[in-house]
Amino acid sequence: MNSVTNDINTTTTTNSKSGQDLGLYFLERSRLGSAQGPCDMDEDEEAPTELNTINSSGGFLVVSPDKLSVKYTNVNLHGHDVGVVQANKQAPVKRLVYYFEIFVKDAGTKGQIAIGFTSESFKMRRQPGWEANSCGYHGDDGLLYRGQGKGEPFGPTYTSGDIVGGGINYATQEFFFTKNGAVVGKVNKDMKGPLFPTIAVHSQNEEVLVNFGQKPFAFDLKDFEAQERMKQQMTIEKISLPTNVSHGIVRSYLLHYGYEDTLNSFDMASKSTVPPIYIAQENGSCEQEDIMYALSQRKTLRQLIRNGEIDAALSKLGDWYPQIVQDDKSATCFLLHCQKFIELVRAGALEEAVKYGRMQLAKFFELPEFEDLVKDCVALLAYQQPQESLVGYLLEESQREVVADMVNAMILSTNPNLKDSNSCLHSYLERLLRQLTACCLERRSLNDDQGEAFHLKRVLNSGKKAKC
Amino acid sequence: MSLFWIVIRQLAEIEEMAVSKKVITREEWEKKLNDVKIRKEDMNKLVMNFLVTEGYVDAAEKFRLESGTEPDIDLATITDRMAVKKAVQCGNVEDAIEKVNDLNPEILDTNPQLFFHLQQQRLIELIRNGKVEEALEFAQEELAPRGEENQSFLEELERTVALLAFEDVSNCPVGELLDVSQRLKTASEVNAAILTSQSHEKDPKLPSLLKMLIWAQNQLDEKAAYPRINDLSTAMLEDPPI
Hints:
The structure holds two protein chains of two kinds. Chain A is α+β, with helices and mostly antiparallel strands. Chain A has 15 helices and 14 strands. Chain A folds into two domains: about 60-230, Sandwich (Jelly Rolls), CATH 2.60.120; about 245-440, no CATH class. Helices cover about 40% and strands about 15% of the residues of chain A. In chain A, the strands form two sheets. Chain A has a seven-stranded antiparallel beta sheet, with no helix packed on it. Chain A starts with a helix and ends with a helix. Chain B has two domains: about 5-35 and about 210-240, no CATH class; about 75-195, no CATH class. Chain B has helices at about 5-20, 25-35, 40-55, 55-65, 75-90, 95-105, 105-110, 110-130, 130-150, 150-160, 180-195, 205-220, and strands at about 20-25, 225, 230, 235-240. In chain B, helix 5 runs antiparallel to helix 6 (about 95-105) and helix 8 (about 110-130) runs antiparallel to helix 9. Chain B is extended and about 70 Å long. Chains A and B meet through helix 2, helix 3, helix 4, helix 7 and helix 13 of A and helix 2, helix 3, helix 4, helix 11 and helix 12 of B.
C-alpha cells in the first residue's frame, strides 16, 4: 500500500517540476546558436601535419627543416640501418578514411623505399612491414609486408617521379595503397591501437617528399569516400520498410509542432492519392490522438511568435493556459520576455527595449541558469548593427522558432492524458533521428572510435553535390 | 590442428563474444540520447524534402508559410509533375505524354525505356476499354518498330498483346498488366524521370534515414544490448532483453 501512495506522490512532484524542466530544455536550445553549433563532433581530432624528427632513425636519414621530406645520406650495410620516420601525430580514426601521400623525388641507388603504417612502439631501424604491428608497401619489389618476414604480391614497383599513397579505410577495416592516383590494392587491417603514417628510405640518395594533405593529393580522396558511402548505402537501401511509415512520421511531426494548415493539406492530398493513404485510421494510437490536443491554439500561438507578436502571444497564453505563465520567474516566461526584448531591438525601439529590460529581464540577472541569455540580450544594445555582432544569433528566425517550440511543448504538457512528459519535447521524427545518431556513435565507440559519425546535415546536403 | 579443436575454439570465441556484449541500461541510453542535438531547422528540411519529392504541393506551400522552410525546388514544377503522374494513374496516357513533352521534351527523347513503357501503358488502356482494332493498329505501328531495336521491349510487347487472346482477362496469365499496380509502376517511373531531369533526387531522404536506423540498430546489436526502437511508427524505446 505504502509504495503505491509513494508512487502517486512522485508523479505529482515530477509533473509540477517537469514544467520547469521543459522550459529549461528550451533555454538550453536557445543558447545553441551562440556557440559554434552542436553537430561537428569529429573535427576536434588532430591529424598528422609533419614528420616526427624525435622518433626517427637519426643518423641514417636527414629530415628537411620543413619536416616534409627525408633523405638517406648513408650507405646501407644491413637490415638494421633503415631510415624510418613516422608522422608527428597518429592517423585520425573518427572518419571514414585517412590518407597521405609521398612523392619519390629520387629513388637513390636501390629504390628501397616504403610507405605504410606502424604502431607507436615500432623499432625505428626496420622497414615498415618487417616487424610485427606494422604494414608497408615497398617500392623496390612492389610487395606488401605485414609483420611476416616475407612479402606478399600486391602492386607494381615504384621509383623516381611516382606519387604513392597509403590509406586506412575504417568502414571496411582495410589498408589501401595507391600509385599515381589509382588504387593498387587493399589488405585487411589486422592491427589495433594508434597507427602512425610511416615512410622509410634505405639506399644512398633516396629522397622522398611527404604530403599530409597540405597540398592536393594525386588521388581523388573525395570520390573514393563518396563511393565507399555509396556501397554502404546500397546495402541499406535493400532493407524494406513497413508501408507508409514515412508518411505517418511526417504526419505526426506536423501534429506535434502544430503545423495545422500543412497537416490539413497533407491529409486532403493523402486521401486522393492512388491508392489513398489512411494513416490516422490505420494506427490511431492514443499518442497520435494526444498530439491532436489543442492543435489550433498551438498553431495560433506559433504564428504570433513567428511574426514577432510576443505581447499578443503572452496575452492569449494567459487566457488559455494561465498555469503556463503563472510563475513570472519560470524559464517559459523568461524566454518570452527575452523574445519580446529582442523584437523591440529588431524594430529599432531601443528606448522601449531598455525600459522593458529593466522591468522584465533585470530580475533574472542573479539567477545562474538565465544569466548567459540575459547578458546576450542586453548586449544587443551595444551594437549599431546587432545582427552582425556575436549576439546576432538572437535576431535570427531560429530564435523565434525555439520560443514557439517551447510554448508548443508547454501546452502539450498540460494535456491531462499525457503519459510521458518527454513526448512533449520530441516528435517521433526527432526520437528516431536521435536513436540513429546515438546508435552510430555507440557503435563507433565500441569499435575503438573508428569510423565516421552520423550527421543529418551531410545527408541533407548529399543530393545537392550531385548537381555540380 | 584437428577439426575437433577448431570447432571447440570457434565455440569458445562465440561464447566469449556473447559474454563480452556490453549492456546499456535505459537510463544510460537516455542520457546518450539527450546528448544528441538534432536541429529543428534540419528536421523541417527533411519534412519539406518529403513533401516536395512525394508531390504534396499544397502541403509544401503551407509548410513553407508555417515553418519558414524554403523548398529545394520550384513548387510550380511539382504541380506539373503531379499532373503527369495523375494522368497515368487514371489511364490518360496520351495526355501524360503530352504533358511530359510540354515540361521538357528531352525527358522522353533521352529515355527510350520510359517512352516504351508509356506506350505500352497506352496499349493496355486501349485493350482495357475493349478497343481491339485500335489496339492492334497501335501495337503494330507504334510499338513493334521499337521492339525491333530492343529484345526486351519486344518481349514486353508480346506479353501485352497476349491480353487480346483471352476472353476473360481477369483470369489469364498476363492479367496483372491490367491491374492498378501496373499504372502505379508506370506513373512512378515517369515521376522519377521528371525529378531526375530537374536535378532533384528521385526519392525522398526520410525513408533512407529510417532504413539507416534499422541498419544501425542491427549493427549495434552485434556489440551491445541497449534500448531499441522496434516500431518506427510509434518511435517507442523498448528495454533491452536481459
